[in-house]
Amino acid sequence: MTGLAIAVVGAGIGGLTAALALARQGHAVTLIERRTGFSEVGAGLQLSPNASHILTQLGLGAALRRVATEPARVVIRSIRSGKEIGQVALGPSMRRRFGAPYWVVHRADLQTILLDAVRSQPSIRLLMGRIVEEVCDGPDQASLTMATASGARETLTVDAIIGADGVWSKVRPAVGNAAPPAFRGYVAWRATLDRSAAPASLAGDETGLWLGPRGHVVHYPIAGGRLVNVVAIEKSAEPVEGWAAPGDGAVLQAHYASAAPALRHLLAQPRQWLRWSLFDHPAETLAKGRIALLGDAAHPVLPFLAQGAALAIEDAATLTSLLTPGAGAVQQAFAAYAEMRLDRVRKVQGEARQNGRVYHMGGLLAFGRNHVIRRLGPEGMMERYAWLYDFRPAT
Predict the structure, then answer these.
(1) pLDDT (tens digit per residue) in 63-79
(2) Where in the chain is the domain with CATH 3.30.9.30?
(3) Which phi and psi angles does 39 have, rounded to 5°?
């Protein structure tokens, strides 16, 4: 397989990673993004070893170490009492066990690092402000039609199309899956605050996970430790509109009014909250012909296992490993990709949904959950996900 002309639709974390990896493999990539600029406000993400290993292999390790934080542990607490339930070993334990770090990072920092690397590749053409309207497969080539805000249209013909355009993917119907994503009954609130404003007991180099029957809260340091990222999950019968709907902090504080004092203090600090609804979609067809999907376009996953970005990075690495010189036709490579990824992404989706149920247990079920967490201990809790963190793309 000589160098291909490949269109990647969507310049999020997965699309940027795919474009970079494919260009370094010798392919000519057109990266298409509907936004006219890049902006990520108040968002952090977790890069477990299955993802950090791939990014390091792409030569991004030094840049990431300058902006990422490496928490020593996850401390699990009860929302109501504030008492510690247990811990998950991170930090040195993750490095020893899986050969790569468990980083937490501001999404904008990771995006900037990837974007700088993409822009340094002469074989990547980045098109901003284009909305993909139609995707067509063919026996010899595939094509897509895109439009600008002014209505100008352009048709691009390529050897392969990769849809990395998120939960509401415009590419997904082209592989035969037009069903919309399903709202899963949760709204997430996100914010950042200066680390100095966080309660001293919650401002260390660790991730906090607070469990309760009405929702849960996660927080961890980002931006090289200068900020704390906070995500609070609220059960909700109705979704909110958009990905960054403003939220009234007083409403969230009322929802967690019975929380332990330290958590209430933390939730009272942010000046701005943004909300988004949690959707997922059963992983079904990941590729068809010359069209493949990755990340949330292929298998949106609830954030209760912190694997959304990691799975997209895995997908990008797997696709690149299959689109190599000497490989078979594009259709064969994409079929192999779908076969390699489907069981794994379905398992991750299922584990994330299960975590949502476990995090929100009450009464005797919560008592039993807490007993299991304590019995396993920090290393045992880490080891539960060895199958997840030890992933390496096929070579």
Answers:
(1) 999 999 999 999 999 99
(2) 182-279
(3) -155, 130
Q: What share of the chain is helix, strand, coil (3-state, %, to 5)?
A: 40, 30, 35
- Side-chain half-sphere CA neighbours of 44 within 13 A: 28
Contact by Cβ (8 Å): 216, 210: yes
Q: What are phi and psi of 389, to 5 degrees?
A: -80, -20
Give the pLDDT confidence of 38-60 residue by residue, as tens digits: 765 557 899 999 999 999 999 99
pLDDT band at 151 (very low <50, low <70, confident <90, very high): confident
For domain 5-181+280-389, the CATH architecture is: 3-Layer(bba) Sandwich (3.50)
List the CATH code of the domain at 182-279: 3.30.9.30
The pLDDT confidence band at residue 393, using thresholds 50, 70 and 90, is confident
pLDDT greater than 80 at residue 394: no
Asked if 220 is an active-site residue, the reply is yes
Task: Say what the pLDDT of residue 177 is.
Answer: 87
Catalytic residue, candidates 220, 256, 359, 389: 220
Give 253-269 pLDDT, tens digit per residue: 999 999 999 999 999 99
Please count the CA atoms within 13 angstroms of the CA of 384 that sit on its side-chain side: 17
> Measuring CA to CA, which residue among 296, 294, 346, 342 is closest to residue 320?
294
Among 340, 348, 330, smallest CA distance to 138 is for: 330
Structure token digits, residue 206: 């660790």
Contact in structure between 191 and 268 (CB atoms under 8 Å): no
Pair type for strands 215-222 and 207-212: antiparallel
CATH 3.50.50.60 in the chain: give the residue spans. Answer: 5-181+280-389
Alpha helices in the chain (DSSP H): 13-24, 49-57, 61-67, 91-98, 107-119, 249-255, 261-268, 308-322, 330-359, 363-383, 386-389
Relative to beta strand 207-212, strand 73-78 is parallel
Amino acid found at 271: R
